[in-house]
Amino acid sequence: MEDKINQLMEEGNSHSFGNNCEVKDHGTYGRLGVEFQSWVAEVEDFILSNYGTESAPWRVFSRFKIEGIDGNYQDAFEEGKRTIISSLKACLRIPPKDKSENKLNKNSELINLFNKFHAVAKQLRNRYNSRSTLDIDDEYDVQDLLHGLLRLYFDDIRNEEWTPSYAGGSSRMDFLLKSEKIVIEVKKTRKGLNDKELGKQLIEDKAKYQAHPDCKKLICFTYDPEGRIVNPKGIENDLNSQDDDFQVLIVIRP
To answer: What's the pLDDT at 81?
Structure first.
């Protein structure tokens, strides 16, 4: 890993303002080239993958703002480059995170969110002076509240189209945690969504995401506030799987 860090630092030092600027009538201003931007992206990916967003190297790197260089003078370029080099120097001094430990922590945080979701939803209904709030009436309401809760632990939360199409059409995944390669699908029980129908939908979700390049773990969270599902543990036990390449976790709460 030290060799990789040194290689990134060496490449960074090779980038100059002269190769990342444009000359205009009234002066010379920063205009970042493709190679510099690619280097920045590689450093970002390296730090995220090995240190995470709670680390000191990431906090140093996050001070870099690409918009602060484009259109500015050479001083801004040099300062931005120094910030990235400093984040790499911090990597030389600080050991990377244990990835297995970090993965375990993220899983625990997600399970805690699902376990506390119903309590949070109930608390939101109990507002001072009967002020308006978020009532959980359908899946979209579940998604809105869960999205806010996910922000406690995850920075990169995406909604993306499923491609290629599955069973004749494409569908939008609810949440993709890009760095963790986790997809979260959200459901809310309703009249007509019984154990059999829910199980069928979950099996389809499992097949749909198994080949997705950014999905190494699929979590299907079903919010069941009225207790419509008769045997939630049975569904969870039947569909949970722990393969090396693709894991499935079914969570039905409360």
So the answer is: 95
CATH annotation of 99-253: 3.40.91
Alpha-carbon dihedral 114, 119, 122, 128, rounded to 10 degrees = -130
The verdict on pTM exceeding 0.85 is no
In the chain, the amino acid numbered 9 is: M
Give me 131's structure tokens: 């002020």
Question: What is residue 163's predicted lDDT score, i.e. its pLDDT?
Answer: 52
Place of tokens 């809105």: 144
Q: Where are the domains of the chain?
A: 2-93, 99-253
Return the number of other C-beta atoms located less than 10 Å from residue 96's C-beta: 16
pLDDT recorded at residue 148: 94
Phi, psi (degrees; rounded to nearest 5) at 9: -65, -40
Mean pLDDT by 10 residues, the chain (254 residues): 95 93 87 91 91 89 88 91 96 83 73 94 88 92 95 87 55 86 95 94 92 90 96 95 90 94
